[in-house]
Amino acid sequence: MNITANYFGNPIILGRHTTVFSNEILFFEGDINYTWIHYAINSSKKVLAKTLSEIEGKIQSDNFVRVSRKHLVNRKFIVEIGRDFVMLSDNTILPVSRRRRNVF
Fold it and tell me: Is the pTM of this model over 0.70?
């Protein structure tokens, strides 16, 4: 089955029962063996029992960038880039690690 991208972005299949679309996600936040998905729509959150590295491996899009050990950010929602932070469209400020500064 071939699922094409639509208005909601590319589908990301994270498990048997979890499919999300790339344009709906602000960022992923890793927490040991769990990952929080922060949605752009109504600022809701959802937790998955997967590591951030597993999710990063499943994403086949260049829209997401790893800014720190804990955060994988959707580039579409980045409003401002500082030396050691990124600000998202909902005014969330996330730190950028020293080793990942050259990504921007």
Answer: yes
